[in-house]
Write a structure and sequence with these properties.
The chain has about 325 residues and is an alpha/beta fold. It folds into 2 domains: about 1-125 and about 285-315, Quinone Oxidoreductase, Chain A, domain 1 (Alpha-Beta Complex); about 125-260, Rossmann fold, CATH 3.40.50. About 25% of the residues lie in helices and about 30% in strands. Strand 13 (about 225-230), helix 7 and strand 14 (about 260) form a beta-alpha-beta unit. Helix 3 (about 125-140) crosses helix 4 and helix 3 packs across helix 8. The longest helix is centred in the middle third of the chain and has 14 residues, at about 125-140.
């Protein structure tokens, strides 16, 4: 089968498509024929080497965290899935490799794909959607009528946070690039502001802030109400370790005010995302669809910024 891999840190050009053996599912595992996979902006730091102090995975490394597809076969003890089932899911925590013809994952990393979406567009959601659900429901406990600020609102997680925040009854303010303001309003933002011309002190007070940028956290945290909560989901790309340590310290010193987590959803959380999509609370936003051979172009596009939603790799496209 084909799989995207890289064997050294570097620019997008280190990514290549390799021919590798098709894996077989072990006990409790499922082999999925991948239809599509999304490209996660967080992977840019892993590929470039900025996260080399965080992970010790060996080369060659794969790319891709979430995927959609159909069950090809199941291992011993698997009862929930049968060959042909349409599924979506995520690789095990801190394991990459979804951009491939097939993946093997524990059965708990899967849920039925939403019946109201095609498998291509649905690939924009498993990782981003479960992250937003955990951030707003478990960590921030966003309540109807509260004011929510989403910083970095047009990216993969940001646009879902806007949609979900509105569905949960919040008053949503989105910070985004000027050309994307009307677009993000169309997803439910009550107010959309240009991040380049809006200073933190120009904003009001918020009950919840979801940060997907990773810089100037202190200035934005100062915009919280007394009982406000910030969910920090990104780190300064130029100072990853310093940013990680600083945010972690904030979370330790004031755990009720700063929330920090690494997305590792349960089967129930992935199934909750399926229900949210089928109920119309969340819809996928796909910026660009590319074949597997153009994975480096996808990484270059993410590095350039201004993405609306997700880059999706159509694994089945020649």
């Amino acid at each position: 089968m084909r799989a995207v891999r890289y064997d050294r840190f570097g620019p997008p050009e280190v990514l290549r498509v390799d021919e590798v053996p098709t894996p077989s599912p072990g006990e409790g595992e499922v082999l999925v024929e991948v239809h599509a996979a999304s490209v996660d902006a967080a992977e840019l730091a892993f590929r470039s080497g900025r996260m080399r102090g965080i992970t010790r995975a060996r080369f060659p490394r794969g790319v891709g965290v979430d995927f959609t597809g159909r069950v090809a076969s199941v291992g011993a003890g698997v009862r929930a899935w049968r060959a042909g089932d349409a599924v979506w899911g995520l690789m095990p925590h801190f394991v990459f490799g979804a951009v491939a013809d097939h993946v093997v994952v524990p059965e708990r990393r899967l849920a039925s794909a939403p019946g109201n979406l095609g498998l291509l567009e649905a690939a924009a959601l498993p990782g981003a959607g479960t992250t937003a659900l955990t951030a707003l429901t478990d960590k921030a406990r966003l309540a109807p009528g509260e004011r929510l600020l989403v910083r970095g609102a047009t990216g993969g997680v940001g646009n879902v946070a806007v949609q979900l925040g509105k569905a949960l009854g919040a008053e949503v303010t989105a910070l985004a690039g000027a050309r994307n303001l009307d677009w993000i309003r169309g997803l439910g933002a009550d107010e959309a502001l240009d991040y380049r011309t809006t200073r933190p002190q120009d904003l009001g007070r918020f009950d919840v802030i979801v940060d997907l940028v990773g810089t100037d956290l202190g200035a934005y945290q100062a915009r919280l109400h007394r009982r406000g909560r910030m969910v920090a989901l990104a780190f300064d790309p130029d100072r990853v370790l310093r940013s990680l340590l600083g945010t972690g310290l904030r979370a330790v010193v004031r755990p009720g005010r700063t929330k920090l987590f690494s997305n590792d959803p349960s089967a129930e959380r992935i199934a909750e995302l399926t229900r949210a999509v089928e109920e119309g609370k969340i819809r996928p936003m796909v910026d660009t669809v590319l074949p597997m051979a153009d994975i480096a172009e996808a990484h270059r596009g993410l590095e350039a910024g201004g993405v609306r939603g997700k880059y999706v790799i159509d694994v089945r496209r020649p």
